[in-house]
């Protein structure tokens, strides 16, 4: 293994404005007790990175200037902090970006993804748009058998998709996916893999992604030309779907989910609503007896277990959703591409 340098250049959020990234020099971090040092293989661009690029209200409140962002990542363990015996040098790992204390009531009840003392790698603290990073060893997950290490960073968004879907019934159920960004596309793929009876995929105007959703197994694909609520009701004998998942970040789409979910059904929301706070039709929620759930991150570790099962069985078509590989040198172009949207997942490689 090559020698570890003392400094590195990493993409850093430096200025209080839209964009505002620079590739600046940082020391290569040293793993503290319980941490591993990872050499980055690849890091993908997430919707959250786009929020940070746009420097919206949520980002301004959460990302300190000077942070190396990037949280969907994988690489090779090259250093072990004191007391780490769960990993070996050379292990290939992907990162769970929610860092937990493992000691608060939320962690103890099995909800470490919403730890009361938690933080998010690559959002609140330094992440992986640089060539080396440190994380707690428990957050460095071994890569499942059969998954190309170059694809491993996508477990973060795939896990988001699975966590959202499993907030309601999937097998033999009708499922609507609103918003066909990379996470929505993974949700279409995962819903198919998990045995959904009917999958309705909805975007606004992104025909590139709507075509991808069709090829990943959506039974019906809707867009701005359609009356989304009426079409979903028509496709479900007037009832609405069992399980609606919201991945668009559009207030209109959230209202659509409420109006097109069956009585007593499930609405699971992963989106972050940038600058526009949605109004929720609350009387519909009450009288339709809906279960509305906010979804954050991935369950640690049941979502990872479900995901590894699906990946090991070859049921997730990572190749179809991962549409672009670029060099980390092209970080700014990759964010532009992700904002323009003629892409699925965009992955940045370090070698
Ligand atoms: N809660 C969490 O833990 C978490 C984690 C990751 C991402 N997120 C959020 O999840 C969302 C999805 O992420 P992504 O990267 O897949 O998203 P993305 O921003 O790439 O894609 C959103 C898609 O929604 C479509 N859209 C816009 N208006 C719509 C409408 N009215 N109806 C249907 N579709 C519409 C867009 O055309 C686009 O294709 C983002 O809001 C992101 O910030 C949340
Ligand atoms: Zn992400
Ligand atoms: Zn905790």
Write up this protein.
The protein has 351 residues and is of the alpha/beta class. It folds into 2 domains: 169 residues, Medium-chain alcohol dehydrogenases, catalytic domain (Quinone Oxidoreductase, Chain A, domain 1); 136 residues, Rossmann fold (3-Layer(aba) Sandwich), CATH 3.40.50. Helix content is 28%, strand content 27%. The chain is globular. One zinc ion binds next to helix 3.
Supply the key terms:
binds nicotinamide-adenine-dinucleotide; Rossmann fold; globular; 351 residues; alpha/beta; 2 domains; 28% helix
CATH architecture of the largest domain: Alpha-Beta Complex
Number of helices: 12
Distance N terminus to C terminus? 14 Å
Order of helices and strands: EEEHHEEEEHEEEHEHEHEHEHEHEHHEHE
Attached small molecules: nicotinamide-adenine-dinucleotide, zinc ion
CATH topology of the largest domain: Quinone Oxidoreductase, Chain A, domain 1
- Give the averaged pLDDT, no decimals: 96
Oligomer: single chain
Shape: globular
Domain count: the total is: 2
* SS-derived structural category: alpha/beta
Helix content: 25-40%
Number of strands: 18
- Kindly estimate the percentage of residues that lie in beta strands according to DSSP: 25-35%
Radius of gyration: 20 Å
- Model regions low in confidence, pLDDT < 50 over at least 5 residues: none
What is the CATH class name of the largest domain?
Alpha Beta
The CATH superfamily of the largest domain appears as Medium-chain alcohol dehydrogenases, catalytic domain
